[in-house]
Protein: UDP-glucose 6-dehydrogenase
Organism: Nocardioides malaquae
Amino acid sequence: MTKTKISVAGLGYVGLSVAVLLARHHRVVGLDLDADRVALLQQGTSPIHDPEISRFLASEELDLTFTTDPATAHADAEFVVIATPTNYDPETTYFDTSSVEAVITQVRELNPDTTMVVKSTVPVGFIQDVRARLGTDDVLFSPEFLREGQALADNLRPSRIVVGERSERGRRFAELLLEGADVDDVPVLLTEPTEAEAIKLFANTYLAMRVAYFNELDSFALARGLDTRQIIEGVSLDPRIGDHYNNPSFGYGGYCLPKDSKQLLANYSDVPQTLIRAVVEANATRKDYIADDVLARDPEVVGIHRLIMKAGSDNFRESSVQGVMQRLVERGVEVIVHEPELDAETFGGCEVVNDLAVFKARADVVVANRFTDDLADVAEKVYTRDLSGTD
């Protein structure tokens, strides 16, 4: 079998998981501007927490190399996958796509005959706009539907593959993704670029809406002294609703759901709507309610147990517990933080206490988005809305 050369620009959890997937059968060069990250990968060590990525780097036969040199990465590549960060800018109310556009410009100079596939999350209409502004039709969009900490697992067993172009090269890229997967019966959808962008944002906003719904159900139960677990169980017995993704939390968080729901809201600027705005506002309301409920216990010291977004992740960007923490700090309560992933003395103006025994002894209330076994001995101190230990 003739191998296709593919380069992947941006080696975060999206880019690295895609690079590993494709390198099972093809020649892949991963590119990142972070020399330390590349050095780790060259040693076979994953810079992100993802068990499957670590296992594949250590034991799988992958045709995968890493570099900080764009010319080495992109030369002769049939496809260039772009997975650079696109953070949400609250001032412009849009994703910052400058890193994606920089890669497109660079690739056009180094390898004008390649096809570029954007995996980064972008605003609805981005591909049409960038094609017109940068003068190229060789840019496609293929959304990712991955969970942090399980990105490679989700690529190996994808729920669906979506490519935003109805063309031979669009089908070819979908086949490359499918070839690397461990399952064959994967729905493949080739669609228009703007529809593919909308699929990504609407999918994540629906998930945010579901989180917000069960959190508001929980807030109602708390306010009325009801059993949240019984209510959720009864509601979820309806097969149209289902018993999944229904565990209360402090709000939706992480890298994708907050920014994607806000971006979708921005795209609705000239379209009548109320639901999308309500989803975004519900997240703030939930954190307000949780902070008030914690303060109702009259603690002198509140301990925040873990800043990470969820179990199995090493990332605490936009984690919901940080919103609760900020509200507690603003109310004048002493807040301490336990986060083993954090090598610092303070975080957000709060003292970091990574000796767990000391942390538990000092905190009057331990706030935990998800209950873990290491809190069992102080369960009476723990404030959590976690009912099932799931996401």
Notes: The longest strand covers residues 5-9. The chain has two domains: 5-191, 200-383. The mean pLDDT is 91.
